[in-house]
What does this fold into?
Amino acid sequence: MLSAFIFPSSQQGHGIGTWVTEITRDFAFEELKLHRLELNVYSFNPRAEKVYLKAGFKREGIRRDAIMDENNYADDILMAILESDWRKMK
It folds into this structure.
């Protein structure tokens, strides 16, 4: 399971999240020899979902209204990438 990265707003939009996600993904498949890497992202964080999609992750499921964001419910989105998907990208 891949965990979230939190950056101050001054650091956002510079590609750091994309870089960290890609380095972590590559390490998981190259060094750890994993078959599957998965993560959860909340629907109120579309920037993060965009980073994961760019890194080759695919949406696999949605737990609707699974968490509370302030006074609103938000979805919990399951995303994953398989080693075979990653190899096709390389």
Summary: The two ends are 21 Å apart (CA to CA). Residues 1 and 8 are 23 Å apart (CA to CA).
